[in-house]
Amino acid sequence: MGYAPDLATTGFHPLDGARYLEQIDAPDRLIHLVAHHSYAALEAELRGLADELADYKDEGTATRDALWCCDLTTTPDGEATDARDRIAEIKQRYGPGDLVTTFITNASPELLAAVDQTWTRVRQAS
């Protein structure tokens, strides 16, 4: 939702989405999860927006990991995909030298750990 032109005030969709959710009085937990989805703290740092993102807490829970997993195992068109393929697609789409490519390259170990932990939790719960 932070990609919507009417909401994109900073150009950083996790932060813009969280700010929008605040405006509509969404639950605090949802606001914070959106703000920190898919290791947004690292990208915020690269974009010079770490101070703004610091207003939101990264809960670091299994729910947070599951959100990251969902984000990384879904294509921009809503189709299911493997997280590693999704990361490769992002790198290809943005190309070398782009900030998003730098982010996803540096974030991959943390992101994939969340994905792997989520699938482990799912298997254990089955």
Give the topology, please.
Blueprint lengths: L12 H11 L4 H8 L4 H8 L2 H4 L8 H11 L10 H12 L4 H27 L1
Would you kindly provide a written description of the structure presented here, covering whatever features stand out?
This protein is mostly helical and 126 residues long. It folds into 2 domains: 1-58, no CATH class; 60-126, no CATH class. It is built from 7 helices and no strands. Helix 1 packs antiparallel against helix 2 (28-35) and helix 3 runs antiparallel to helix 7 (99-125). The longest helix is centred in the last third of the chain and has 27 residues, at 99-125. The chain is globular and about 40 Å long. The mean pLDDT is 94.
Q: What about the largest sheet? A: none
What is the oligomeric state here? single chain
Uncertain regions: pLDDT < 50 for 5+ in a row? none
Give me the secondary-structure category.
mainly alpha
Q: How many individual helices?
A: 7
Tell me the number of structural domains.
Answer: 2
Would you list the SSEs in sequence order as H and E?
Answer: HHHHHHH
Number of DSSP-assigned strands? 0
What percent of residues are in strands?
under 5%
Instruction: Please tell me what the overall shape is.
Output: globular
**Straight-line N-to-C gap:** 32 Å
Considering DSSP H and I runs of 4 or more, what fraction of the residues is helical? 55-70%
**Mean pLDDT across all amino acids:** 94
Specify Rg, calculated over alpha carbons.
14 Å
Q: What features would you highlight for this structure?
A:
7 helices; globular; 64% helix; mainly alpha; 126 residues
